[in-house]
Amino acid sequence: MKLFRTVKRYKRKLEKRFSHKKRTQLNFACDEKIVTGIKMLAKELEVPMYPLLEHLLQLGASEVLEITKNDHLKEELCRHLVQEHLLVPVTDIEPPSANAIKARKAVDFLDAVEELAGDPKALAEIMAKMMKEATAIGHPNEL
């Protein structure tokens, strides 16, 4: 029991040291599946839940902010929020966004190139060559 109190006291000391005065606690009802998923992610990443939740809120807010710039997308988002989150007792975890999939593919590609290159200098040469070729061709969205 004494060990548990010592660990708890140390945890509070760390939280005080790394917490910021300008943080606000959000208390709202959330679907149990989402909470369980967040707990599992936090355990997998070996971090507390609150920095993970803050990161997820930050990512989601940036996505929503971008959507609000388009009136049609904003209307669709409002409809989705009401139908899929407000008026239902349980929500499901959605598949990853296109941006998350692109980022994962880019990281996988870089890992494969690094593995093939074998050393950082060769990797830098490969990446420089690829960047030179990409700028010569032009960005696909600009064509």
Question: What keywords describe this structure?
Answer:
143 residues; mainly alpha; 2 domains; 73% helix; 0% strand; flat
Explain how this protein is built.
- By secondary structure, this protein is mainly α.
- It folds into two domains: 29-94; 96-137, no CATH class.
- 73% of the residues lie in helices and 0% in strands.
- The chain has six helices and no strands.
- The chain has helices spanning 2-18, 32-45, 49-67, 71-86, 98-117, 120-137.
- Helix 5 (98-117) packs across helix 6 (120-137).
- It is flat, with a radius of gyration of 22 Å.
- The mean pLDDT is 77.
Describe the secondary-structure layout.
Layout: H1 2-18, H2 32-45, H3 49-67, H4 71-86, H5 98-117, H6 120-137
Q: Tell me the β content.
A: under 5%
> How many E strands?
0
Quaternary class: single chain
Helix content: over 70%
| Content-based structural category | mainly alpha
Total number of helical segments? Answer: 6
Ranges where pLDDT stays below 50 over 5 or more residues in a row are: none
Rg over C-alpha atoms, rounded to the nearest angstrom? 22 Å
Q: What is the makeup of the main sheet?
A: none
